[in-house]
Recover the amino acids of this structure.
């Protein structure tokens, strides 16, 4: 296993890691430069959202993974690894390093400004999903012991963690794991790291409104007003990827009109998101069951945008069947 776990007390005992330079380093180790265009992925997010699953997926994809690296050691670790190995690196940072987390977002922006190919992936889930997962594992939340020494209940700890991580979420690619099975999250993580950082990655995601709107959606389009193949007996067991369902939907002019208008909207505003240096844009398309209409339109729009760069398509409800 290439995973390394560095709890804060062990890292402090080991002392600072000096990069192998001939010149003396600056007095502030946070100012040591890190260069290079290699892949560095920082995985963060709410506790219980699946960070360990994502980290395992990155390890399987060839990344050297470090879990629970204290943020104050990030620059030193990256410089040392660059000098000795130059590996693709994935680092998990979360509320276990609560006291040093406020300095992480500014540091990541500095590293990105220095030209380091670093991306931040933020895993999140609804409060209900997180409560259910903690109840199943019976593990305490990392922030259950409050700053004042008192105990926080689970929901209070989850909300305190959201506030603590808000700055990181704002600069990250957000993945909503509320409805995802571990196999889905592993695949979505692999898709994410395979996408190029040179251009914005556009994602079309189908979903069922009855299971909730994806938290990672930048735009949400409701297509429940369109004709529903569910009410055609021969089409009910099929999905939007099947030809008979596609033929049915193509036969209705309003379906094509909806697709054209969504495409026009995305094309109109996509350049603005690219100029804003966004790395990821998720367009969520929802219908009642996430099986027919939303699936068909997500696939159709992904094909229309396929020539512009990295475009991904996800079917939250269908992918979860495997």
């Amino acid at each position: 296993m290439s995973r390394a776990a560095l709890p804060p007390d062990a890292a402090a005992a080991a002392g600072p890691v000096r990069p192998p330079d001939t010149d003396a380093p600056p007095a502030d180790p946070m100012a040591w430069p890190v260069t290079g265009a290699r892949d560095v992925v920082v995985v963060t997010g709410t506790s219980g959202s699946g960070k360990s699953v994502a980290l395992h997926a990155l390890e399987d994809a060839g990344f050297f993974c470090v879990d629970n690296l204290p943020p104050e050691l990030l620059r030193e670790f990256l410089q040392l690894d660059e000098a000795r190995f130059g590996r693709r690196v994935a680092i998990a940072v979360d509320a276990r390093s609560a006291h040093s987390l406020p300095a992480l977002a500014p540091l990541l922006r500095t590293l990105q400004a220095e030209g380091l190919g670093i991306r931040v992936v933020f895993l999140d889930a609804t409060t209900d999903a997180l409560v259910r997962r903690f109840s199943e594992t019976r593990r305490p939340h990392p922030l259950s012991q409050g700053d004042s020494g008192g105990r926080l209940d689970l929901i209070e700890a989850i909300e305190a963690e959201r506030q603590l991580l808000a700055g990181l979420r704002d600069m990250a690619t957000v993945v909503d794991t509320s409805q995802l099975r571990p196999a889905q999250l592993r695949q979505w993580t692999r898709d994410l790291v395979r996408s190029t950082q040179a251009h914005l990655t556009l994602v079309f995601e189908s979903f069922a409104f009855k299971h909730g709107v994806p938290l990672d959606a930048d735009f949400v389009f409701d297509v429940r007003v369109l004709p529903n193949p569910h009410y055609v007996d021969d089409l009910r067991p099929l999905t939007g990827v099947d030809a008979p369902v596609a033929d049915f939907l193509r036969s209705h002019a309003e379906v094509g009109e909806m697709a054209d208008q969504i495409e026009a909207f995305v094309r109109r505003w996509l350049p603005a998101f690219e100029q804003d240096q966004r790395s990821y844009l998720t367009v969520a398309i929802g219908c009642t069951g996430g099986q027919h209409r939303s699936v068909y339109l997500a696939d159709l729009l992904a094909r229309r945008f396929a020539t512009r760069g990295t475009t991904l398509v996800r079917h939250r409800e269908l992918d979860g069947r495997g």
Q: What stands out?
A: The radius of gyration is 22 Å. Residues 1-37 have pLDDT under 50 and may be disordered. Residues 253-275 form the longest helix (23 residues). The chain has two domains: 4-194, 201-319.
